[in-house]
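Lecture notes, continued. The same structure-token format from the folding unit now serves as the input rather than the output. Read the line below as a description of shape only.
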């Protein structure tokens, strides 16, 4: 084993997918898993099989679809979880069970009402039990970030003796400071006798914005696996972003570490995950944000024009961002669309491709040039099924010196309805009109509009979070018309409410 090789463990499909509203179906998960394989990740955490039949099935299907990476399934330190995970992994060519338990005093006392000795015993028992099924067992010490180092070292030593091949030290709450987290990893390297028999893994959350810094501190102090997600998606403020770690390691010649990541796949995979999860990437996100390579100040532009190295530390091509990428137009054929999608890592079955091509032609009618983000958006999640409520037509008028007004025609399970209303703008008027037809109590908690590329003929994406009877629902739509996209995102939420 090369001592400087860092193993990339991607948990987009497990920790990332736990985010409300980001759930993927099995077909979408396979698409992401294959993209992760093309990116060169070493381990794919495919799910938590005991948590739902959907997760169980996804682990099975991902195991069949992927060849090189290790497929990992999460469990608690519970025999039933481990049995189910082993069953879900049966088709994986390389398999790992990821089991563990909370080790901080807070988890031991409040979550388990237990003692340190009992937790140590349960940890060892779970690892031994998992080893009956697979040779590769990873143990996580949940809330290790707030666990006393001496006790953590005892747990780590005991689980390695029980057969753990990887020991994961999660900063579950994102609390640690980089120096503190680095010191924790160093402490384990220096105080666990059998530490050379296992790989130490980092797993950092971003609650205080330190996930990447903490992961790097862990790697610089001896960890050789890091658990990351694409675009940093994950519960609350998210997990460490894969693209940040990969590019830090690639750009810093002063850090003697290597990964297997094919960085030129970063941008397409980032966009694919964002589109499938309906999770926009913030424009100033490091590496993959829309503005990451945009130099707007005069001084910066002048420097970059003289020599890009003045202000640019990464060549955009290194992450697969081709600023000269081919643009498609209304005259581009089916084959050109297929080729472009495959270049971006999206391989669709013929029937889905036909549907995307039809949508592409409609969009190309309204927008001169179709860029990569547009077609990735069109190829994203399939929202056509389960639509009880459909908008037949919508007319909204607004302007200076007039009251915005909208009228709408809606089809609900084959029955036609019409209504009109005013509002403080065309979106508000349209939603008020729809509310006269669909009389459910729905509160809009979040409403974001984002342009896909550029220009006044751009396509916009609308993300909406609504609340109905104490439950949260997410809607998404895209259109060159902001009022249409907004009302369709609202209707997407209504259909999800109908489907429960
Ligand atoms: O954050 C965490 O502690 C986790 C574990 C289940 C690995 O996600
Ligand atoms: Zn986590």
């Amino acid at each position: 084993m090369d001592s400087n090789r860092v193993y990339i463990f991607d948990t987009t499909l497990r920790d990332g997918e736990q985010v409300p509203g980001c759930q993927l179906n099995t077909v979408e998960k396979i698409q992401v898993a294959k993209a992760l394989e093309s990116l060169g990740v070493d381990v794919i955490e495919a799910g938590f099989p005991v948590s739902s039949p959907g997760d169980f099935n996804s682990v099975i299907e991902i195991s069949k679809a992927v060849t090189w990476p290790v497929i990992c399934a999460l469990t608690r330190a519970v025999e039933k979880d481990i049995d189910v995970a082993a069953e879900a992994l049966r088709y994986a060519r390389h398999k790992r069970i990821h089991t563990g338990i909370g080790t901080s005093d807070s988890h031991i006392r409040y979550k388990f009402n237990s003692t340190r000795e009992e937790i140590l015993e349960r940890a060892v028992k779970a690892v031994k039990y998992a080893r009956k099924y697979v040779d590769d067992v990873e143990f996580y010490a949940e809330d290790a970030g707030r666990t006393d180092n001496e006790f953590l070292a005892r747990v780590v030593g005991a689980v390695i003796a029980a057969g753990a091949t990887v020991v994961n030290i999660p900063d579950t709450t994102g609390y640690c400071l980089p120096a503190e987290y680095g010191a924790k990893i160093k402490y384990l390297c220096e105080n666990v006798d059998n530490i050379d028999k296992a790989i130490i893994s980092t797993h950092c959350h971003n609650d205080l914005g330190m996930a990447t810094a903490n992961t790097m501190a862990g790697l610089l102090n001896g960890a050789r696996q890091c658990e990351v997600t694409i675009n940093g998606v994950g519960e609350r403020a998210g997990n460490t972003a894969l693209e940040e770690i990969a590019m830090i390691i690639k750009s810093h010649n002063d850090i003697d570490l290597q990964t297997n990541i094919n960085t030129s796949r970063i941008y397409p995979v980032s966009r694919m995950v964002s589109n499938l999860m309906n999770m926009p990437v913030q424009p100033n996100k490091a590496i993959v944000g829309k503005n990451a390579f945009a130099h707007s100040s005069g001084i910066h532009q002048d420097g970059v024009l003289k020599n890009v190295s003045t202000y640019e530390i990464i060549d955009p091509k290194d992450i697969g961002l081709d600023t000269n990428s081919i643009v498609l137009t209304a005259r581009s054929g089916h084959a050109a669309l297929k080729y472009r999608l495959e270049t971006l890592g999206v391989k669709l079955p013929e029937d889905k491709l036909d549907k995307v091509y039809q949508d592409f032609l409609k969009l190309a009618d309204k927008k001169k040039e179709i860029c990569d983000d547009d077609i990735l958006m069109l190829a994203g999640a399939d929202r056509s099924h389960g639509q009880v409520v459909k908008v037949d037509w919508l007319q909204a008028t607004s302007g200076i010196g007039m009251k915005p007004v909208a009228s709408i025609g809606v089809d609900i399970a084959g029955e036609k309805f019409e209504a009109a209303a005013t509002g403080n703008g065309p979106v508000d008027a349209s939603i008020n009109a729809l509310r006269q037809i669909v009389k459910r109590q729905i509160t809009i908690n979040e409403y974001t509009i984002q342009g896909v590329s550029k220009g006044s003929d751009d396509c916009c994406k609308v993300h909406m979070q609504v609340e109905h009877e104490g439950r949260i629902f997410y809607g998404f739509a895209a259109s060159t018309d902001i009022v249409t996209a907004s009302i369709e995102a609202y209707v997407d939420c209504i259909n999800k409410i109908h489907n429960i």
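Point for the exam: The first strand starts at residue 7 and ends at 10.
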